[in-house]
Amino acid sequence: MSDPLPWPDTLPADMPSCYARSALMVSRSLVRAYNAALREVGLPITQVSLLVAIRRHPTATLTSLAEGLALERTTLLRNMRQLETTGFVEPAPSRGRARHYRVTEAGEAALARAYPAWVRMQRTLQEALGPDGETTLAALRHLRQVAGALAAATDPSADEDTP
């Protein structure tokens, strides 16, 4: 194994083009924008996304939900507890040790309230991005696949990130 490179005394000129830094900044900005749009409903985008994932994949295990949403399992469990406390999800009957959840009537009502605000934010972003919107989404999907594959190849304990 070769010696690691020492951290330079000055930041490299290409540091602002770091993929991880750029993705984090975009992610934080998008989360803030969606959360602002959803504030009137009282649901953050993370909870909306999780409720939608549970609705779309009612037989999904917590592990497969975490993988599909690119979440650490502990983060998913924390979010599930919040949704369970608010009465938006409940454990679903299942066989074996795997836990499954389903969206409750209260969760469905919360999603129904959130949907118009989500649609407005989607349209606002689509208009702001213009014709580049679909290309941007495709590039983000590709970046997620490549980064997931690199993480799996360099860290065998990393969760595989497959949508």
3D structure, described in words:
By secondary structure, this protein is mainly alpha-helical. The chain has a domain at 43-154: Arc Repressor Mutant, subunit A (Orthogonal Bundle). The protein has 6 helices and 2 strands. It has helices at 19-38, 45-56, 62-68, 73-85, 105-129, 133-154; strands spanning 89-92, 100-103. A two-stranded antiparallel sheet has the order 1-2. Strand 1 and strand 2 form a beta hairpin. The longest helix has 25 residues, at 105-129. It is globular. It starts with 18 loop residues before the first helix and ends in a 9-residue tail after the last helix. 15% of the residues are buried. Residues 159-163 have low confidence and may be disordered.
Uncertain residue segments:
159-163
Compute the CA-based radius of gyration: 19 Å
* Tally of separate helices: 6
CATH class of the domain at 43-154: Mainly Alpha
Q: Report the CATH superfamily of the domain at 43-154.
A: Winged helix-like DNA-binding domain superfamily/Winged helix DNA-binding domain
Biggest sheet strand order reads: 1-2
Named at the architecture level, the CATH assignment of the domain at 43-154 is Orthogonal Bundle
Distance between the termini: 34 Å
Shape, per Cα inertia axes? globular
Tell me the helix content.
55-70%
CATH fold topology of the domain at 43-154 = Arc Repressor Mutant, subunit A
Structural class: mainly alpha
Mean pLDDT: 88
Strand count: 2
Main beta-sheet annotation: 2 strands, antiparallel
Strand content: under 5%
Order of helices and strands: HHHHEEHH
